[in-house]
Amino acid sequence: MTGKLVKLSKEKRMEQYSENILQSVASGVLTLNQKRLITTINTAAATILNFHPTAVLGRSYTVVFGKNQKIASLLKGVLHDGNEAIRQECEIERADGKIVCLGMSTTSLRDQQNKIIGAALVFTDLTDMKRLRDQVELSKRLTTMGEMSAWIAHEFRNYMGTILGLSRLLSKNINPDHPGQAMIKTINQELSSMDRLITEILSYAKMTAVQRVPVSLDTLIADLMEQFIAAGAYPHVRWSSSFAEGLKVSADPLLMQQAISNIIQNALEAMQGEGTIHIHAMARSEEMVEIKISDSGPGISKDHLDKIFLPFFTTKEKGTGLGLPLVQKIIVSHGGRVSVESMEGTGTTFTLYLPS
């Protein structure tokens, strides 16, 4: 009897030891049975997925992962066919709405007869790493597009110079009352519009030299709001703001003014002169500051939402499609990022994340 008790005690200690190891692992570990019910979840997994372990134990994997097709496919492969996956990337939407990128591997759990009785998912949170990778790729893409845009602008300006010279020469050689003068005037006006567009393209294309100084966000944004209000172009727009006291970022004040002004101008045009603009700034962490610029406009359609930062994409009749790409370029050049949330009929919120 004593020997049996000692044996059980050793088994209990071994089980406890294994549990301690599982809970100490930095990666998320989650196991499921053949019915795809969660049987174990360690601390790291609960943190990454933003669930308390007791809330998911014994429940379907869809409680955590929703109806994510890639997760479903990975589970089918390992539970039905024993096909284990290594280093798969998968984006999931958590219950709190946050999108996280997981680096995931799967392995089958087998009994003594080598029958598959379940599966283990081992994963890490790659969200920050993916964001950094995306920023590096974006910086490279912006550089390439900038160089290409500069070349195109230079070539166009050469052709335009020739056309402008010929139109002026033609204007001098015909009677001032000749009907052709009106057409020449129209040509010159269109060339002037093209020149303004090329100036914007060159502004987007040139390297952004960031002259960093400590910038007080409440002062910078309050000054910008006053400038828009003083201009009097949108008298029916309601303005509001909220700031954490003494909030500062290390940034180029002129570039930051340009970025925030572009977003505000877009919002004003979208609202067609009526609505509300709210600007909120806060410290997201010791190293990151968050600026939210919200409007009560018509919102951005889902079809357009993933295109708004593409150079030359615009839904405006006379827009250049360079305002928001320039915003993104400025924020990225500061080591930050910009995101947008929008619902049609509700409004739009741009969020700028900047190193403090």
What does this structure look like?
The protein is of the alpha+beta class and 356 residues long. It folds into three domains: 2-125, Beta-Lactamase; 131-205; 213-355, Heat Shock Protein 90, CATH 3.30.565. It is 48% helix and 25% strand. The protein contains eleven helices and twelve strands. The strands form three sheets. The protein has a five-stranded antiparallel sheet, sandwiched between helices. A hairpin with a 4-residue loop joins strand 9 and strand 10 (288-295). The longest helix is centred in the middle third of the chain and has 46 residues, at 127-172.
Notable characteristics:
single chain; alpha+beta; Beta-Lactamase; five-stranded antiparallel beta sheet; 11 helices; 12 strands; elongated
Within CATH, the superfamily of the largest domain carries the name Histidine kinase-like ATPase, C-terminal domain
Q: How many structural domains can be distinguished in the coordinates?
A: 3
- The third-level CATH topology of the largest domain is Heat Shock Protein 90
Global morphology: elongated
Could you say what the CATH architecture of the largest domain is? 2-Layer Sandwich
- Tell me, rounded to a whole number, the average pLDDT: 84
Residues in β-strands, percent: 15-25%
Termini, distance in Å? 67 Å
**Strands in their spatial order, largest beta sheet:** 2-1-5-4-3
CATH class of the largest domain: Alpha Beta
- Radius of gyration (CA) equals 29 Å
